[in-house]
Amino acid sequence: MLFNSYPFIFVFLPITVLVYFMLNRLRYGLAAKCWLALSSLFFYSWWNISYLPLLLGSIAFNYAVGRLLQARQAHSLDQTASRRGAKGILIAGISGNVLLLIYYKYADFFIVNIGAATGWEVPLLNLVLPLGISFFTFTQIAYLVDAYKGKAREYNLINYVLFVTFYPHLIAGPILHHGEMMPQFDRVRGKLWDWGNAANGIFIFCIGLFKKVVIADTLAVYANTGFDTASGFVDSWVAALSYTFQLYFDFSGYTDMAIGAALLFNIRLPQNFNSPYKAVNIQDFWRRWHMTLSRFLRDYIYIPLGGNRRGEAIMLRNLVLTFLIGGLWHGAGWTFLFWGLLHGVGQVIQRLWGKLGITMPRVLAWAITFVFITVTWVFFRAESWADAMRLMKGMSGLSGIHLNLDTALLEPVAIMILIAPIVFFCRNSSELSVSFRPNFRQAVVCAVLFVISLMYITRISEFLYFNF
């Protein structure tokens, strides 16, 4: 089920909210959690019920591993032996999650490349990527690591199911920690209807809906056409910039709708998107873009690799490795790996530049960062290496520079000129949420955004991050 669909907006969301608070009002707290967990499983099954057993199996496996970790640490008198045993359990748990991800996400990629290298003809598995598998897998890996460190304990199966499946974050994040999620469901005040949170949630949800169905889906037409056919200088840059802004509004739109829907339940999801195109360097960009993924990569990959504790050269190596893994997480393809490599190398160059002690004007730093991000998105979006090279040749002028603007390109250029100030200068949704106060003006803005969005919602499309 999609956030940007009539069934979700007019049926599923209001019914789940209404029943949840009715059960809590009647003091059926456990029943309310069960209702929300079952509703989330129904939400997931709406896409393809055949993958529900996969999700439930993943939950059962990780819950059992988490309980083993907790039991090992709680009942062992020999702390050294306990630590070794717990570490073995953790490695087994993480391995199980990674193998599941490799099978569904990377099996065909490996088969193709092994076949190309060896000449073997192995039939592809042609597996359909289960929706949200990267997100619920990473969420549970984080839980296992936190359980191993003693930072997370969950003895109630219903609580754990709700933690993993809570539908505002299930499909495309944010990637959550158990400690920042479950205490909110147990707060007494959180079980009571809150008009302030509801108004704020609806406001943020409407902003996200508008971003997705009006702006992102409009730009998608030009981005798709450009990546299929563009080869000249102007049309290649229009295609790249169209996708750059499409991805921005698509992903931030999803994030807004997830945060807004969760607020209706008095649940505050962590910020996941903080005006990334305002960044003045690559490190700043990754502090703003998909913030919970950046946190995961830092805490569970970069730091375990050694972080910056073993000297400058090892630290730079760890940066590149972390971003290579981040690129591969986004998709099974050499273009995704190269995209990750570019961002890793960008981080290294920034670090080395910082050691020179040379500063540049802030506007120039922002411009270089934005152009770098736009160029790297080409590899992120391209269906093949050949498509990426065609766009890169066009953008670099190697295919010739013809500045006459085709009339078909005037519309996307005009749209991007209109939305650029929103991206670069306006307050983002998180900032608007903090300063939000229910009043007539806000209600009018919300209503206008919602009505306009409904006019576009007939062209229903999935969010881009559903593919990752």
UniProtKB/TrEMBL annotation:
InterPro entries: Ac/AlaTfrase_AlgI/DltB, AlgI, MB_O-acyltransferase, MBOAT_fam. It is found in: Cell membrane. It comes from the Bacteria. GO terms for molecular function: acyltransferase activity. It is a multi-pass membrane protein. One of its GO terms (cellular component) is plasma membrane. Keywords: Acyltransferase, Cell membrane, Membrane, Transferase, Transmembrane, Transmembrane helix. GO terms for biological process: alginic acid biosynthetic process. The chain crosses the membrane at residues 6-23, 53-69, 89-107, 127-145, 157-177, 192-210, 319-343, 363-382, 403-425, 440-458. Belongs to the membrane-bound acyltransferase family. This is Acetyltransferase.
